[in-house]
């Protein structure tokens, strides 16, 4: 895995190549190749369609889901005004994009590694699995609420050991938590990588602490700049200091962050 | 086209300065342009001691703007001088320190630390931050306090230009500008953010942990232009125009109403190279305004009927 | 879902009132919806004598908003009573007169003309118009004047509810709201427009003949919410929230911070049926806010951490 | 010609059927039929593409250029942010529209009528010519700066006596003014209808006064509401009173308006 090359991080205007034709609230956005082959899974980019006027002030942070020589792909869910407008893009539309931003997940070649994904937290693991030198060491546990078909899970489960658990109603929550804890416990001498909503990350963090398992968490936060300048996205580090999720994360060692 | 501007003892290669709190310490933007090309950089607000700032959430997006309540999180003035300033291209670009303190005396002490720093071209005194509970807006809304703070900073500045940054959240901004001038300010900069608020009907909670925050971005440009216009009528010292500038045309609008230079804030979030793009676009916009230099345009607004 | 609201002696079928100056005399919108469905209509500002208003240009578009300097053009209160009021569905929908005058005494006279009109449900006193050179903002920026005008109008209103409309262009809006309450106001409405300006670098002229004008629209919503929040803390009388409301969610945000009803202004220009669409959409937005009635939501903002 | 039927005036969301493929700054926008067959040429509509966010506050006024049972057509030039975004619409995009608004031009059947168009002022005359019961009474004089190909002039000149004059440089201005004055004078006992920029209308108004010719002028003004409510678009009438261009115009008798 290539380490982030800073000269790659600049603003580009890319063309949208076409959308995945899955359930409409879940969108796969594939853009022409910005030369990000060397990105590190877990890194993200800020996206701002060129056609946005001024009423949406910020770009939108999205994990880089995968990248190859021809293209880079994002995978997102429509949750508000920005993602709604991004979902309405048509092939050929231009997007302003800056990245790859932040750090990424560790990818030690010969360590049993459990990937814990909650919902859209699945996105960065797609490229992680594709690029990992020794995928046989990987295990994916995917917790989700919407139908499995909404996610690129099938393609991913072909490459690594994978299991999924669905929270259909709040009653299923204990089962989901149980599965997460078990998965963490079972990674005793390995590494846990987690990406998902904050309550999900809290469960992972707690379990990792309890069982003394090394873990990395990818955090979400509202972002204005994405480059460490505005201090709008901070979380508290281990020493209770505010650090930027965008620049010091979004991936943190589980012990280095207060959720 | 002559983009140079000179005022308050500063010589800038162009009138585009990045605004405090929106451009970090400048270093964060090195991937996106050559920061030596900027007219100036106002760094994130500095206080005497490090500050952790406000709790999260600190920012909210609003139509054509945003709210922030960062609360002047910063590593403290000493860390700035030690860790950041040496990395900045201060010989080529004016590095302006932005000062925050909660008392007149503390403003003086803070000034003292920076006054001797060769790399600091000027001091911008933030008497207008709406996001801190002591001082902050309290100073900025009271002409008497503005004057006192200005006098104190000026006294301790060892000759460095002092720019007083004004709040728009007042009945009469002209009075505030005048108070700064009377206190000895070399320039005023305006506006800081408008006091605003956003709430979430789903959670029934404010969108900012601090409840209220500062509104910035294109939404406030008309208010900012009006404030600069009023200040220009009230004082003789130079004015730096701030508020909602996203394009070279916007920048020239502020020059037209009387500003000597401008600061670009929230636009840096539209895309991180926006300030550089504004500089690139200035010559074209100056053609539109039919001027060959910034000086030629400054304050030439024609209000006759 | 119970959309009804009652306050200051008014009973409205829903909290959506159209704002003065943005909905004409209501009649202009009959093609676009059934105006009887509105909670209320505040008609264009009325003065004792007809007014031609300001010279052109009077409006300018700004990011997520607009500037206006109409200057209270109106046919005079008598023409309103004679020609417009009889055509309005005042038995079904609260018709609120918006009063503009340039002295305390004139406010009294104007009130006297309207006090006896059965079709007028309430009086909204515009002490905050930034677009006229006598009176206008002068009143609205001075708590003492606000109080005096309020007392005078109240005295002449023959028991009709008196709503005082406040300007946001002040250092402390709480003081202004309090002055209205002390003067006997039955409610306050806020905000009127923010003082702003726009210029054209090509012509080097202001975009409004009046040079400055009032900023309205989504751009100002955060400022409006903050003002309502501050006023709600300062007074006990009901508040009508105004500023940048374009959706049912926006309307509920104002209710959440403490408003009893809202006025919709610039949104009527987004499309002329927008106020009707907001009413249509209220039940859905109330589901989102998990409330069955407007009363249930009012002022329930949770500011604890 | 059918007189305006008020019940037609409501807000609709229409689909864009396709664009005329002329020089790119000049756009013909054809929308599905809103049932405006009975509109009166000179009337206009307010248009607001559904995809606009909030940053453009107002709709944009455009003259109805022509309408038939299937469609309504507007013809506009890109001059600012709004028209730029309208020009970028793609077939199938939706537009919010309200109209027909204002009054229209008189169309007396057996009166020699001279249509004076300046630049985009040509737009309303397209439908005027198509619908006029006795086009042999019509004469079109078209003053323009850009190339004639930018306008639908050719199609119009097939139906009525037409001539055009181009202002290539400011030096041509006297010739243009001369042609306008002559055309007005030559309509001695008829009717002059004019649509174009304000200086153009001033020339027409002056000439009509000098030669005692009956004339109607279609005015432009910045508009926020388009329905007479905001008082942002006013002009001065003959008695120096402010009247709304949108509701009392945009077509005025030449004597009833101060330019
Ligand atoms: C590093 C990072 C990577 C992400 N990767 C993905 C991804 O791969 N796929 C995906 O579907 N989503 C991802 N998200 C979340 C995604 O950024 C938000 O869903 C999106 O910004 C919502 O924008 P909106 O305008 O539709 O929603 P709105 O609610 O209208 O957004 C308003 C503002 O809040 C911010 N915001 C809202 N929800 C979130 C959230 N959950 N996290 C962060 N900011 C939020 C928005 O960015 C925007 O600035 C990621 C977030 C971060 C920080
Ligand atoms: C009744 C009427 C009919 C019109 N018919 C046509 C037509 O058929 N074809 C055509 O090309 N143009 C026509 N116009 C002019 C057209 O409305 C403007 O060119 C257009 O609104 C410019 O919008 P913009 O956002 O691109 O420009 P901007 O300059 O960004 O506009 C900013 C604001 O100013 C207003 N504005 C700018 N220029 C004008 C203008 N010349 N007249 C009125 N308002 C203006 C805009 O509507 C907008 O509200 C008409 C105007 C009116 C009043
Ligand atoms: C996230 C953020 C942080 C800010 N921090 C500071 C600060 O530390 N000191 C200061 O004087 N102004 C600060 N400001 C205000 C800006 O410098 C500027 O005055 C204001 O945003 C208006 O300009 P704009 O509309 O171009 O953003 C901050 C603004 C934002 C958006
Ligand atoms: C064109 C226009 C005319 C207005 N005229 C009046 C008026 O006559 N009297 C008044 O009290 N307010 C007037 N207002 C202010 C509005 O009633 C309202 O307070 C303000 O626009 C803020 O609300 P909004 O953002 O929803 O438009 C006017 C506003 C506009 C845009
Ligand atoms: S998003 Fe600006 S510091 Fe992280
Ligand atoms: S555009 Fe509003 S009155 Fe004419």
Written description of the protein model:
The complex is a heterotetramer, with 2 copies of chain A (259 residues) and 2 copies of chain B (305 residues). Chain A is α+β, with helices and mostly antiparallel strands and 259 residues long. Chain A has a domain at 6-100: Translation factors (Elongation Factor Tu (Ef-tu), domain 3), CATH 2.40.30. Chain A has 6 helices and 16 strands. In chain A, a hairpin with a 3-residue loop joins strand 5 and strand 6 (71-77). The longest helix of chain A is centred in the C-terminal third of the chain and has 14 residues, at 198-211. Chain A starts with 9 loop residues before the first strand and ends with a strand. Chain B is of the alpha/beta class and 305 residues long. Chain B has a single domain (5-55, 68-194, 215-297), classed as Aldolase class I (TIM Barrel, Alpha-Beta Barrel). Chain B is 31% helix and 20% strand. Chain B contains 10 helices and 16 strands. Chain B has an 8-stranded parallel β-barrel, surrounded by 6 helices. Chain B has a 4-stranded antiparallel sheet with strand order 5-6-14-11, with no helix packed on it. A two-stranded antiparallel ribbon of chain B has the order 1-2. In chain B, strand 5 (59-62) and strand 6 form a beta hairpin. The longest helix of chain B is centred in the last third of the chain and has 15 residues, at 274-288. Chain B is globular, with a radius of gyration of 18 Å. The mean pLDDT of chain B is 95. Chains in contact: A-B, A-D, B-C, C-D. The structure holds flavin-adenine dinucleotide (2 copies), flavin mononucleotide (2 copies) and FE2/S2 (inorganic) cluster (2 copies).
